Automatic annotation (TrEMBL):
The lineage of its organism: Eukaryota, Metazoa, Ecdysozoa, Arthropoda, Myriapoda. NCBIfam families: thrC. Its cofactor is pyridoxal 5'-phosphate. Pfam families: PALP, Thr_synth_N. GO terms for biological process: 2-oxobutyrate biosynthetic process; serine family amino acid catabolic process. This is Threonine synthase-like 2.
Length: 474
């Protein structure tokens, strides 16, 4: 399996090289050059697979044996999944009104990001040990990705991680889950800006090819292809657990940067009979793009009860277009240039219609709807949902499912992480000891304030870490 930039400049790249890169040289994202197909016979064979077995099977399709042996891949996944608090990794809740929820949040930081990042962190460690190298992982987060990324690599030799998060646009618990990691290889920056604004200095760093090569800079955002690859597995697992041979699966996906949607679209193209619905908060970029094929610039993300979705420029939209455009690099180059330069975008109808064949609908929901949905779910089922999950449940309450399909809502984070949203919805929060202890721990972070040169601060930190490692290595 080889990889390319969606904009066409780079081709025939190995999995290992893609793992250790963020953006491609042309500013695009990496994707596999061919999409493997899983036959109906193979799906039947997988019917009794555990979640871990599904992950191993999916990764084997995207990583050549010459890069990681099957034995090493199996050990790596086993180690990653030992962190989860339930042995089955993913749990299902069947509620009334035909409401089915897949709980993807039983990892170390109580978010679905743990499903992928627990594995990706070990992929990094595996290759770094082989080559006795050091890497600097650069992450921008709107909330949950930061803590999950840190958890996956904290204390690992050969890895430093730098995380930028929006100081006033994530919850207190999300913040504490990042800044209470005081390991020497963890570096958190609290940015006085939005998620989109903090992405700008990060992308500028990745565009500095000399800096990237010198310090071996990579990412654990869904910029990184390996994270998308692991997320494909949970779509296969959901289908295998929930559907008989003649049934299809409709998955309602709470969507921020659209990485999870990308994984779902890939699962469909690999032969899985699923369709997707994207649910978002009142930051409507994803839903407007998937409904009308348009991105209108000039809109800043505004804070909501579902902060992981407070995004107006989701970079994985470029991957979605790549997957349905049959490798039209001219289109992708134009799309990417408009995206990079903050220009309005309008997809050709033929591309939009191909997207709609799989992502059959998209809808955004206000904070009022999110609050009412959290309350309704509790009143009718005594079941707590987080604000992000509530957007999926709100769609389920509003729209009947497709005939002949099984429908499942993805629960992307534990409601325990959002007590304020629960209280405002008149739902009693659950006391979670893992969260309660955060308030007593030491904190470590640096501020990036309005008016400062965030790129210079970030670049200087990268140089400082890289130079320290060079001294130690020598």
């Amino acid at each position: 399996m080889k990889y390319c930039s969606v904009r066409g400049l780079e081709k025939d790249i190995s999995f290992k090289d893609v793992l250790f890169r963020g953006y491609a040289k042309d500013g695009g994202l990496y994707m596999p050059q061919t999409i493997p197909f899983v036959s109906e016979d193979k799906l039947k064979e997988m019917k009794k697979f555990s979640y871990s077995e599904v992950v191993k099977m999916i990764l084997r399709l995207f990583i050549d044996e010459s890069e990681i042996s099957t034995d090493d891949l199996n050990s790596l996944v086993k180690s990653a999944h030992s962190q989860f608090e339930i042995p089955e990794i993913i749990k299902f809740a069947k509620l009334n009104e035909d409401l089915l929820i897949a709980e993807l949040f039983h990892g170390e930081t109580l978010t679905f990001k743990d499903l992928a990042l627990s594995v990706v962190g070990r992929l990094f460690e595996y290759f770094l040990k082989q080559n006795n190298k050091h890497t600097i992982i650069l992450v921008g987060t709107s909330g949950d990705t930061g803590s999950s990324a840190i958890s996956s690599v904290r204390g690992l030799q050969g890895i430093d991680i730098i995380v930028l998060y929006p100081k006033n646009n994530c919850t207190k618990i999300q913040e504490l889950q990042m800044i209470t990691f005081t390991d020497s290889n963890v570096h958190c920056f609290a940015v006085d800006g939005s998620s989109d604004e903090l992405d700008a200095p990060i992308k500028k760093c990745f565009a500095d090819f000399e800096l990237v090569v010198k310090h071996n800079i990579s990412s654990l955002n869904s910029i990184n292809w390996s994270r998308i690859a692991v997320q494909i597995a949970h779509y296969f697992y959901l289908y295998l657990q929930l559907c008989s041979q003649d049934e299809s699966l409709e998955v309602i996906v709470p969507s921020g940067a659209a990485g999870n949607l990308t994984a779902g679209l890939l699962a469909n193209l690999m032969g899985l009979p699923i369709t997707l619905v994207a649910s978002t908060n009142s930051n409507k970029c994803v839903s407007e793009f998937l409904r009308r094929g348009e991105i209108k610039t000039g809109n800043k993300a505004h804070p909501t009860l579902a902060p992981a979705m407070d995004i107006q420029m989701p970079y994985n939209l470029e991957r979605l277009v790549f997957l349905v455009s049959n490798g039209d690099f001219k289109l992708l180059e134009s799309f990417g240039s408009a995206f990079d330069n903050n220009r309005n975008i309008k997809l050709p109808d033929i591309i939009l219609n191909k997207l709609k064949e799989v992502i059959i609908d998209a809808e955004s929901f206000s904070d009022d709807v999110i609050t009412n949905t959290i309350r309704k779910c509790w009143q009718e089922n005594s079941y707590r949902v987080c604000p992000h999950t509530a957007t999926a449940v709100a769609y389920h309450y509003k729209h009947k499912k497709t005939r002949g399909s099984i429908r499942v809502c993805l629960a992307t984070a534990s409601a325990d992480k959002f007590p304020d949203a629960l209280i405002s919805s008149q739902v009693p929060p659950n006391i979670n000891s893992k969260i309660e202890c955060l308030f007593k721990l030491d904190k470590k972070f640096v501020r990036m304030q309005v008016g400062e040169n965030w790129f210079s601060i970030l670049k200087n930190k990268i140089e400082e870490i890289g130079n320290q490692y060079s001294v130690l290595a020598s």
